[in-house]
Amino acid sequence: MADETNPFFIVQGQLRRAVDNLDLGEGVYNLLKDPMRVIEVAVPVRMDDDRIETFIGYRSQHTDATGPTKGGIRFHPSVSVDEVKGLSMWMTFKTAVMGLPYGGAKGGVICDPQQMSERELEELSRGYIRRLAPMMGPEVDIPAPDVNTSSQIMGWMLDEFDRVRGQHLPGFITGKPLVLGGSEGRNSATGRGVVFTIAAAARRIGLDLKEATAAIQGFGNVGSYTAHYLDQAGTKVVAVEDVRGGAYNPKGLDVPKLLQYVAEHRTVSGFPGSEPIDTKQLFGLDVDILVPAALENQIDEANARLVKAKIIAEAANGPTTPEGDHLLASRGVFIIPDILCNAGGVTVSYFEWVQNTMGYYWPPQEVDRKLRAMMTKAFDTVYKMKQTHQVSMREAAYLVAVHRVAEAAEARGWVHRKRAPEIPSDQLQAMATTMPEAPASAPVANGP
Questions:
Q1: N- to C-terminal Cα distance for the chain?
Q2: Sign of dihedral through CA atoms 183, 188, 189, 190?
Q3: How far apart are CA 177 and CA 161, in angstroms?
Q4: Which domains does the chain have, with CATH numbers?
Q5: What is the pLDDT of residue 317?
Q6: Closest CA to 375 of 329, 342, 335
Q7: How many CA atoms lie within 13 A of 189 on its CB side?
Q8: Arithmetic mean of pLDDT, 286-304
Q9: What CA–CA distance (Å, rounded) separates 78 from 377?
Q10: 91 and 70 in contact (C-beta within 8 Å)?
Q11: At 383, which helix (H) or strand (E)?
Q12: What is the pLDDT of residues 409-447, one digit of tens each?
């Protein structure tokens, strides 16, 4: 993978700029530029035809300066060690932007889940956790769903971890089924958070969401929920795309019918009343909001030249290359960076972990209220940093995040850093970790 599209090198560059802008010193950069631990495992699986196939998996734990590491597990043919390392660093800065008591981690297995049976996927999921169990736990490293993994897969992984440890530890993993201690609102959390940040950005630039149009690249969990909540906000979703094709209607797609169509056909391609559209065409549409919700490196320098949108909401991790980002910023496009935009998922994962720890569970309205408050507060913190330092939203997000992680590392005695410029007290307050208050109502019966 070329350096300019390698997630690990990209995030190292983002860290470098933040450390330099905050004048934190070389020690902080050297401490955070590499994951503290990267584990490679080989997982043998007996396939349905009785042959044994070995799958290679990884887990990168970036830093636990601010708490146990946290991050998803993806199953995908393109998983690589550098991808997992880079994503684990992004998770550190994502949790720091949100003020969560976590460091960053990420896991992945090189496989094509579309070509595997349910039994094979279960055996792979269990085998992966068995290999990693000694280095994981609710106070050590907490996984979650990611690309091509689901609440059912999290359920299998939780069961396997409980078997290995000989006790029930629901806080080991998040994004699990409700009956096993999952949180209300977790499945929709990332898409919901994306729309909360879009609403905040729209207010800043004077865009009325009820008069706005949007296009979404990627229509899995995040993209579909983003479409749902944008539609509820009155925004006209005119185009969507998944790995099998796209659907476009300049008058707006009927999102509820589209979601039903996808549930039946597993693709947006061929949706009645739409015409086909590809990625290049989608990026070039004259819409107000563009939501890349697929994989990394989708908006490169060439694609960035096509973009006409006023707001880009990075629902995926690392969807914009540095060259594309520079070009978009020079044109004044308002980019909501990934570590802020798609942080709704890890925020509700935090809520889930807290509920598991306390042993009682909140109704969906409570989860939604807390998520809205935290996403809006984080957006405002980053926006104030942007104004204070006259930088882009992406750079501002990294200034907030790196400052917090460096402060934690210094408090532990890991590094003696230069003194960073003072950050206004209201911004520091927004960065502080606070436990959500206990609900006034009695627990609801969806816990373990």
A1: 43
A2: positive
A3: 15
A4: 37-167 (3.40.50.10860), 189-341 (3.40.50.720)
A5: 87
A6: 342
A7: 31
A8: 92
A9: 35
A10: yes
A11: helix 364-389
A12: 999 999 985 555 556 656 555 555 444 444 443 333 333
Q: Compute the distance between CA of residue 132 and CA of residue 119 in angstroms, rounded to an integer.
A: 20
d(CA 265, CA 244) in angstroms, rounded, equals 11
Q: Provide, rounded to the nearest whole percent, the portion of the chain with pLDDT above 90.
A: 86
Angle ∠(65,71,75) on CA atoms, nearest 5: 150
Q: Residue range 8-29: average pLDDT?
A: 94
User: Looking at the predicted structure, is the pLDDT value of residue 204 above 90?
Assistant: yes
Q: Are strands 37-46 and 52-63 parallel, antiparallel or unpaired?
A: antiparallel
Residues whose CB is less than 8 angstroms from the CB of residue 91 and which lie 6 or more positions away in sequence, other chains included: 62, 69, 70, 71, 102, 103, 104, 105, 106, 346
CA distance 410 to 268: 49
Predicted pLDDT of residue 180: 97
Nearest to 48 by CA among 135, 99, 119: 119
Whether residue 106 lies in the annotated active site: yes
CA distances from 34 to 5, 127, 404 (A): 17, 27, 17
Half-sphere exposure (Cβ direction) of 140: Cα atoms closer than 13 Å? 11
Please give the pLDDT value at position 437.
Answer: 47
Is pLDDT at 44 greater than 80 in this prediction?
yes
Of 179, 237, 182, residue with least CA distance to 209: 237
Alpha carbons 215 and 227: distance in angstroms, whole number = 9
How far, in Å, CA of 246 to CA of 86, rounded? 29
* CB 147, CB 112: distance < 8 Å: no
Fill in the amino acid letter for 210: K
Among 106, 176, 370, 386, the active-site one is 106
* Residue 3: predicted pLDDT: 65
pLDDT for res 423: 61
Contact (CB, 8 A) for 247 and 218: no
Predicted pLDDT of residue 1: 41
